[in-house]
Amino acid sequence: MAAALAVGRHWAFDSWLGVSAVALAPWSVLPAGVAVLGLLALSGWRAAVPATVLVALASWPLIVTAVPGSQSASAPIVTVMTANTEHGQADPNALVATVTTRGVDVLALQELTAGSIDALSSAGLDRVLPYRSIAVQPGGTDVGLWSRYPLTDTHMPTGFTVNPVQARITVGGHQVSVIAFHSQAPVSERTTQAWQSDLRRLADIMRTAGASTIVAGDFNATRDHLQFRDLLAAGYTDSGSDAGAGLLRTYPTDRFWGPLVGIDHVLVGADLVGVAVGTVAQPGSDHRAVVAAVAPRDAAAAMLGSGGRPSG
């Protein structure tokens, strides 16, 4: 099974069952490992070798995510946080406290409602991050972008199930484009088609957005999905992979077993790199937030050459 799911990573499934199975691919390694140990105990190492090779191949994507990129060391210029608020149910005071304690400069929020936006303002979010732009959607599941720095060239690209917010900030002498994004969730055949369309449309925008671009949001996709890796092929990396953060599980948090999959991400263009990335609990929401410290890639290379290492 683990080998089959590993092969599935290289197939763009059109069915929601296939998409869901690929999302759970990393967990197939656990029972497969137990089976290999059982085979070793019962039949000896000769019989277990082929199965061990298959499990190792299936595990390789997990190992890669835990190894820092060759340039993942520098002082960050901007800290980005993305959080799905589960239809505005995330505790506004807890969210603002996280923004404050983590020194967040740019915040991308998904599944906002008019009431939750007001609650966040009352909790002090607009005082900490005074610049904002919100893409109001029919049905009230809005996407919002908050920033410590002025937002310029702000617009809402169309052609998505939920239109994102795109803007530009200037920080540390660098101009950075930021996109707050939320894809359709692939929970049926119809919504899976919409999910694929959202990711393809986003890839088109990312290709022309420039190398100093950050895309933060709920992609409803893991690193195991080919459709997600197609986004990276546009010249981006997952900040968590840059930082060697391992498997960042963000969803669902409202089950007793805890989050199983990492569908929330901060992606960075070729001129940027993630240097310290982790997840944070969000009371009231079924997602953990992702917080990523981002640095210029050329500065990261210089820091690496002098022996510097990231903190956190």
TrEMBL record:
Checking Gene3D superfamilies in the record gives: Endonuclease/exonuclease/phosphatase
Keyword annotations of the record: Endonuclease, Exonuclease, Hydrolase, Membrane, Nuclease, Transmembrane, Transmembrane helix
GO terms, molecular function: endonuclease activity; exonuclease activity
Q: Any transmembrane segments, and where?
A: 16-40, 47-67
Say yes or no: keyword Glycoprotein present. Answer: no
Q: Where is the signal peptide?
A: none
Pfam families noted in UniProt: Exo_endo_phos (PF03372)
Domain Endonuclease/exonuclease/phosphatase, which positions? 81-287
Q: Which InterPro entries match?
A: Endo/exonu/phosph_ase_sf, Endo/exonuclease/phosphatase
UniProt keyword Cell division present: no
Q: Tell me where on the tree of life, at the top rank, the source sits.
A: Bacteria
Can you say what this protein is called? Answer: Endonuclease/exonuclease/phosphatase
The organism of origin for this protein: Nakamurella multipartita (strain ATCC 700099 / DSM 44233 / CIP 104796 / JCM 9543 / NBRC 105858 / Y-104)
